[in-house]
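Problem: given the chain below (244 residues), write out its structure.
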Amino acid sequence: MTKKVEIDRETAAELKELRKIRKAYERLKVEHDLLKKAIAFTSNRNATSSSSSATTKKDHSVRTLCQLYGVSASGYDAWKQRPSSRRAEDDAHLIERIGEVFEANRSIYGSPRVHRALRNQGEIVGRRRVERLMRENGVQACSYRLYRRMPGMGQFFGQCVNQTHALQITKLNQVWVGDVTYLKVGAEWRYLATVMDRCSRRILGWSYGKEKTAALTSRAFRHACRTRRPDAHTIFHSDRAIAH
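Solution.
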């Protein structure tokens, strides 16, 4: 009888210890899940704090979250009911105005030009504040590598006469034109090189990449040559020169 009681006590102790281990395991799973969400949120520029917190509260109870972060539930409720500060309201207003200026200028304005545009519209705001709000909200202007000035290049390209100005376009493969533009994909800028037939206005070849280089344009031209077989009289005109 005594031996059976001892076995029952050992079993009860093991079960108690097992429940503690299981509880600790569940807590670690929740912490791991929250950490993954925090990493995903900070790496996603298009995410918002409101959507992140709403998803977190949907998956986990407020009491559990308060225990994990070491805060009281009453303190969280008091913080939630606290009205927004004047500074936060002003920031929200400025973020909206910054977005309007940024979109109105094809997303190419950096913080100095956005600040200048806001001041011209009568908005009293400091340049560093505009820079901070744009950085915190992932508002980043398109930047691209300009052609480096080289001595004699202007004279060299000036000798290349544009033969397409007075040319009558009457047939396919008479004149091809090429250009490079940029477009925003997600949160990053990419470059697109295209080759078009002037007669049909059809895009014959294109190439897409992270950098604006001669290789990008060459890939677009080769693509166009695979689409059609130009003859020796086809004129190819880009923004820098022409070629036969």
